[in-house]
Amino acid sequence: MHAIAVRSVPPAVKIAVLVRTWPSEHGWAAVASGILLLATCVAAHAVSSAQEELAEVKRSVPNLDKGADYFDSCGACHGPDGGGTRDGQVPRIGGQHASVLWKQLTDYRHDRRWDVRMEHFADRHNLADAQAIADVSAYIHQLVPSGPAGEGNGKALDAGAALYAQRCSRCHQTNAEGDAAHAVPRIAGQHYDYLRRQFYDAVDGRRPNFSAAHIRLLAKLDHDEIEALSDYLSRLPANRSQPTNKAGGGVH
After folding, report:
1. pLDDT above 90 (res 223)
2. What's the pTM?
3. Which of 26, 27, 104, 171 is 20 to 30 Å from 50 at the Cα level?
């Protein structure tokens, strides 16, 4: 008789498995093989389910009034303008592309992105269906956060600007405004510490919805480069109505 709790097998898949009995002749190699097979099946199902719900969200016509009602619970952490917190514990989401919000909320619901708080608030108890995701995403998109983002020490902004131009601007666009058509997020004006954490989480396997190509790109960055890039991005204007911050000569 064996009782086994297994989590994160493989690292890119979060799964809990309870094996109450297992004939001894099968051995632990067979147990491991069975768990890996189950994990692969669960991961494939999660991707398929997420894609199906995302397609349904895209077909929905958003209702801003209902979106405002749904956002009441979001605003408790993200703030009434979706500005998050400057310490980076809560990201700035106001003004983010609706297509990005659709995907992230759907991923939280289908175990494609991990955060205990967000997994709770994105579940069907709070957002009942695809229509609810469309509604709250549209409301968040039209918010305009006030106040500056949390920033780094400002010592390597030129290096951060160069890194961004070389490695990130092709997808995230010149001013890090993202690309709504391809669900590429706006990262300009995001909080410094939040950006740093996401970079490390992606490389360490804690962001399963990051593409392999994206992870490989981030894995090439060392500690100082991540600091510089995060600081640079945090100082870019979060929306096109804001003035450009030229602090340190590295933001333009």
Report:
1. yes
2. 0.78
3. 171
